Fold each of these.
Amino acid sequence: MKARVEYEKLMDSKVYTKACIRLKFPNENILQANFALMETIGDIYDFLKTHILLNPNEEFYLFTSPPLKKYLDPKAKVFNENLHPYTLMHVGYSNLGKPFCLNNSLFYYFKFFVRQKQIRDNRIH
């Protein structure tokens, strides 16, 4: 009987194929990216190091709050960490002595794109 209830619960649950993760940086910029559920936390770190950070050797960590939970295990799956369907993750910076350096041209491009879309939609005059 218990197995049947679990089966029915599983059949009624929604099936997600990706996780939409918003990454909030210390300078208040937010970047949204989609990750497959079987990708790892290490893949998110690699994405940030290769595409977003100017210095890929900078030490940083990912966390959610409340409650505060740091994601330090690079082998943990996005699905197993319940980061689906939508999650706001914060990017914490270990070295507070120097500024956190992002590839700002990427953010300027996105801001320009959003502004152009708002102009087309008559949201900005």
Amino acid sequence: MSDNLLRFITPNSTKTSSNVYQYSQPVGDERRNYYIRNENAELAPSPTPQLEYDINPTVISTKIYDLNDDNYHLKESLDIVLEIYPDEVIALMPELELTGDGRNPIEAIRELKNEILDLYDELIDTPNEELGKFPKSWKRTLALLIEKVS
């Protein structure tokens, strides 16, 4: 890719991989780092870059106490992490490798709860002999944390 294209994307860009560029932008008294993915770099002489995401999200650790479903009861609270970006929130449960996303924390947590219940139902109904190492671990964890009421 030519230096001219790099300058077109932004004068302060640094190429990080094939079509991804990093640049900094002042925000108040600090600078934020952003990535730009240039999907059409090889196809057009002056493609329009797209802002990918802010690499410095606000990260919050919190807990959930209910799964929003009367058929399931949490035996204890679940630790989750929220990554808050300008246009999206991602709710994570790293121990089970589950995520939920939404426009705000409520939507992201709701999606994460649905993912937790889907994984629980899938694993509880699957014999241990058919599960790999990680799914067996997730099944044990979920069985300790969730009780099916009905």
Amino acid sequence: MENPIFRDPEIALRILKQEFGIEGELSPLPGELDANYKVTASNGSYLLKLSKPNADVQVMNFECQMSAFLRSKKTLADTPVFLPNRQGHLLTTYQPGSGDEFVYARLLTWMEGRLWSGVPEYNVSLLQSLGRIAGNLMHSLQDFHHPAADKKDFEWDIAKAAWTKKYQELFRGEQKELIAYFYQGFEDILGEQDPL
């Protein structure tokens, strides 16, 4: 059963005010695991992430530390900054009442832009830019170590791309041939380690 306060915008507004000293308007955003909101305040925009009580705290700390690590590397991609609450913590545990229910909250700087899935057509320059940035991020993360990194298969990790192979049937023609070419390249590199 889902925690009833997990996706409650009123709780999100209270967390913003009480824990971060921010008042603003919320716009719900999609999210795989978290309830995400764009916060529009008088001093700027933010991303508020609310996580269920059973969320893996180690993974949330991993995300905070990875973001800080990437910012210290000055990568080709801008990365959001996790902002501390009034007590100076990046991860807030918020309990709205006297019961057992609570949520985890994290506040990040807002990154303006649009989702890759919202781009109507991909040209060579855009694809090359994506490849350059993704490669740069992967190279930058080679020196980053955290126990949660090996604990979970992150779908965004290009080294764990095997889960996407079943979706290649969604493509046709030249795109499908190109995808098959790169899958073969991954298999050649990975060998028996993690075949696609």
Amino acid sequence: MTTYNATREQGGVEPVQNATGDITVVSTFALTQALAVNDIINMLDVPLNAVVTEVNLSADELDTNAAATIAYDVGDSNSAQRFIAAAAQSNGVALAPTRMNVAAGLGYQYTSRTTIQVKVHTGPATGATSGTVRLAVTYSMQSITLSNDTAS
């Protein structure tokens, strides 16, 4: 298992945490070698109190075998399939944009800054050594109520 860092995880990129409304963050990862089962790509960070409302994953054709086997999960270090479970590439084509397919992921609120990851669920039959993985995560910020707040 290898861990990679995508564009938004390569240092100096902070998650947006003081905006209102929906925030969509897009991150990409360009392969330099074939992916293998259980590889993890750290794609982007979400801040404390982020409530995830949408997740979309797409990838170039990263399994060039006529009987492609590669599949991906999207989640975090506590739950690899929090948002997307086993999104499989079809034979001979790229992974079309795949939306969140885990019901419990909709509205999930983070209690700390967290890295959203893509994990290789099933390795490729014939792995491509170049191509791109793309992830878009939409979240909103929920207000925090401190324990010492009082009503006025």
